Structure formats: structure tokens, C-alpha cells
From TrEMBL:
Residues 27-85 form the Chemokine interleukin-8-like domain. The keyword Signal applies. The lineage of its organism: Eukaryota, Metazoa, Chordata, Craniata, Vertebrata. It comes from Ameca splendens. It is found in: Secreted. This is Chemokine interleukin-8-like domain-containing protein. Gene3D superfamilies: 2.40.50.40. The keyword Signal applies. SMART domains: SCY. Keywords: Cytokine, Secreted, Signal. InterPro entries: Chemokine_b/g/d (IPR039809), Chemokine_IL8-like_dom (IPR001811), Interleukin_8-like_sf (IPR036048).
């Protein structure tokens, strides 16, 4: 009887460990509050898209002051800012050749 109970406990622990491992680690950072005011391109040094597993699609803007601001991907000014940063990065990479 004790052997059966021990086997059941080991089996339960294995199932728990397996299901926890399959769930994986969640996203590092998601946005729930957004900065809706346009940010000057001179104040932004880069950006990161949030994980697709976040409930709200967003972009984290990295500022020259070392802060991160959550902004909506759908905002026109954000799209323009991303295009500017992408162009700046491509031109900067080409000028170092």
C-alpha cells in the first residue's frame, strides 16, 4: 500500500513538473498604460516591440533619459517615429562600411 501511495505521489509530481515546463516563461514586459502624447524623435534612442503573448500590442520607446514609455502601435505618430528610427539605423549601419 505504501509503495502504491509513493508511486502516485511521484507520478503527480512528474505531471506537475511537465505541465509547468510546457507553460513556459511569460513575457518580460507588457504594457497596460499608454503614453498618448507624441514624443520628439530627438528624445528616443530605440524601441522594442512587446511580446505577442501580451494582451495589448505595444512598443516600448527607450528615451535618452533612460526611461521606457509604452505607446500604441496603431498611433500614426508612433508609426512615423518607428520609420524614422529604422531609417536612421540603416543609414548609420551603411555609413560605417
Amino acid at each position: 500500500m505504501a509503495r502504491l501511495a509513493l508511486s502516485a505521489i511521484v507520478l503527480m509530481m512528474a505531471v506537475i513538473a511537465l505541465t509547468e515546463g510546457l507553460r513556459g516563461v511569460g513575457p518580460k514586459k507588457c504594457c497596460f498604460k499608454f503614453n498618448d502624447k507624441p514624443v520628439s524623435k530627438e528624445k528616443v534612442v530605440g524601441y522594442i516591440k512587446t511580446s505577442q503573448r501580451c494582451p495589448n500590442p505595444a512598443i516600448l520607446l527607450n528615451t535618452v533619459a533612460g526611461r521606457q514609455l509604452c505607446v500604441r502601435t496603431s498611433a500614426t505618430w508612433v508609426k512615423e517615429l518607428i520609420n524614422y528610427l529604422e531609417t536612421k539605423n540603416v543609414l548609420g549601419a551603411n555609413s560605417n562600411m
